[in-house]
Design a protein that fits this description.
Elements: H1 14-42, H2 44-61, H3 68-83, H4 91-112, H5 118-128, H6 132-137, H7 142-163, E1 165-168, E2 171-174, H8 185-200, H9 208-218, H10 221-236, H11 243-262, H12 275-289, H13 312-320, H14 322-336, H15 357-382, H16 392-406, H17 419-426
Antiparallel strand pairs: 1-2
Helix pairs in contact: 1-2, 2-3, 2-7, 2-16, 4-5, 4-14, 7-8, 7-9, 8-9, 8-10, 8-15, 9-11, 10-15, 13-14, 14-16, 15-16
Length: 437
């Protein structure tokens, strides 16, 4: 029997096309109106900070170069750059351009004297280049918008930690790693480490209580070590109080003990087999991460698909040349220099009475470093054994933190109230002077 069904003819085919185009146009108009309304309600500076935070979260969610989150992140980044009221052409900008130029030279370098991997090299350059806008216009207020993402990330990890492990024939099987919003446990641990350090510098320090146990469940040993070292240094220098940190540590201890008491797997539920086994594997893991395919040279060779090269300066030296690695180290060291890029209160007139000076000196000493300094320190330490801090996933944090430090825009965290009224209330008033006789 002949099939009488035929394809639609005539002018029928433009109808769905016109419908789709109309829907896209209406959606674009609604989006523009929403952005304008948000700009009126929040202001340009806050909206730009929210856009930068969306870019950082989108970069964390990216799985491959065809991911939708990559486009969303770029749109947010460009939007934040256009809305940012404060843009600066500091020497750091030219150093950042030079650093990207070395990456760009690695594309032909991979063809002439490299391994021919020019496609991946070009993709990495395209992935990293837009982050230069963070160096120019980034603001520390973006971190405040990241706090909900850190809490959601920690919640997903805490849920997946105890529920993703099972035993099959007496063998421990993990059906899902504790990676939260990311796709890699080490990447998840690094993101949490930055969140813990930032939250500890705000007045909402108690939010660290769920973040620290989540870091334990990622199984990222290096992220845990770096977080412990930086937070310990912050406590020693009295940059943060110790009570919220103590509460978070107690939660971690209770979590591990509860897993050991009520689960046949013991604390292996937190992805640690045994402390002795962890220590035994450290030497081999460090050597594997520091392995290089060839000795670095002045010539850029392009992306090296090698299981080692987890050290960021070493990876930059191998892929983009020794000069690029020196430039990265110089920029990072310049940004970490305590007296660079931070406007302290020492140069401003002090309107407070002399009896408040001791309390204010402690506040100004912690302000001299600020949240951006501590976060950059943690990022540099993470970069010793993990390269995700330089590639696209968390690479935006490096550009943002270096830009904040070198442009002199560091200030108190957006979630932290001004300590001066509190210090003034806590300090007893000076005795009144006797009236002249």
């Amino acid at each position: 029997m002949q099939n009488n069904a035929e394809l639609p003819t005539g002018n029928f085919w433009p109808v769905p096309v016109l419908f789709i185009v109309s829907a896209m146009g209406v959606s674009l108009v609604v989006l523009i109106c929403a952005v304008l309304a948000s700009g009126v309600l929040l202001g340009r500076a806050r909206l730009a900070a929210a856009a930068f935070a969306l870019f950082l979260v989108s970069s964390l969610l990216v799985r491959d170069f065809g991911d939708l989150w990559l486009g969303i992140g770029w749109i947010a980044l460009f939007g934040g750059f256009l809305l940012a009221p404060d843009k600066s052409r500091s020497p750091a900008l030219y150093a950042g351009v030079a650093l990207l130029a070395f990456h760009l030279l690695a594309i032909p370098g991979s063809l002439f004297w490299g391994n021919g991997n020019w496609e991946s090299t070009a993709a990495v350059v395209l992935w990293m280049a837009p982050s230069l806008m963070l160096l120019v216009a980034g603001t520390e207020a973006a971190f405040a918008w990241l706090v909900p993402a850190w809490l959601i990330h920690a919640g997903l990890i805490l849920y997946a930690g105890p529920t993703s492990w099972s035993t099959a024939a007496g063998v421990l099987v993990n059906s899902e790693s504790g990676s939260g919003l990311s796709h890699n446990p080490n990447l998840a641990g690094g993101f949490l480490a930055l969140g813990i350090i930032y939250v500890m510098t705000t007045r909402y320090r108690w939010l660290v209580v769920p973040l620290l146990p989540a870091l334990l469940f990622t199984g990222s040993r290096w992220a845990l070590i770096v977080t412990a070292a930086v937070v310990f240094l912050m406590v020693v220098l009295r940059a943060i109080p110790s009570k919220p940190l103590g509460a978070a540590i107690m939660v971690c201890v209770i979590t591990v003990l509860a897993a050991a008491m009520f689960s046949p797997l013991g604390y292996r539920v937190a992805t640690y087999d045994s402390f002795a086994a962890v220590v035994h594997r450290v030497n081999g893991d460090v050597q594997a991460r520091m392995a290089v395919p060839h000795i670095p040279s002045l010539l850029p060779h392009g992306v090296a698909e090698h299981p080692g090269l987890h050290n960021v300066p070493l990876r930059i030296a191998v892929e983009n040349g020794i000069l690029a690695a020196i430039l990265w180290l110089g920029l990072t060291g310049w940004a970490l220099w305590p007296r660079k890029g931070v406007k302290t209160e020492a140069s401003q007139p002090n309107p407070w009475p002399a009896h408040n000076n001791a309390a204010m000196d402690a506040s100004e000493r912690s302000e001299r470093f600020g949240a951006s300094w501590w976060m950059l320190l943690a990022l540099v330490l993470l970069s010793l054994l993990d390269y995700y801090t330089w590639m696209g996933h968390l690479g935006g944090f490096w550009w943002l933190l270096v830009g904040i430090r070198l442009r002199g825009r560091s200030y108190k965290p957006a979630l932290s109230p001004d300590d001066r009224p509190r210090l003034a209330r806590a300090t007893p008033a000076a005795p009144p002077k006797d009236p002249p006789r």
